[in-house]
Amino acid sequence: MLPQLRRSIPTVFSLNRAPSMRTTPLLLLLLLILFFSPLHAQGGNGGFGELESTPMAIGGTFTVSVTGAVGQTYQLYISAAPGFFAIPGVGVVWIDVLSPTFQLFAQGVIPASGSADLSIGVPNDPNIVNLVIFAQAVVSDPGHPSGVALTRALRVDFETPDSFLPLPSLAGPRALGTANLLRDGRVLVTGGGSGSLTAPAGANTTELYQPYLRSWTSGPTMVVARSFHTSAMLPDGRILLMGGADSNGNVTATCEIFDPASNSFGPAASMGTARAAHAATVLLDGRVLVTGGTTTFTSPVGSATPLGDVLNQSVNTGEVYNPATNTWTPVGNTMASKRFGHTQTLLLDGRVACVSGLNGTGSLLGVEIPSWTTTTSHYNPATNTFATGPAIGTARVGHQATRMPNGEVFVSGGLSPTLLFGITTGVTTTNSATRLNAGGTSWSSGGTLPSGALQHGQVLLKNGRVHMSGGAVIALSGTTLTTSAVASCGVRAGGATSVTGTASLPAPRGLHLAVRLYDGSILMAGGADGTTALPTCLLYTPGF
Question: Is the pTM for the entire model greater than 0.85?
Answer without folding.
Answer: yes
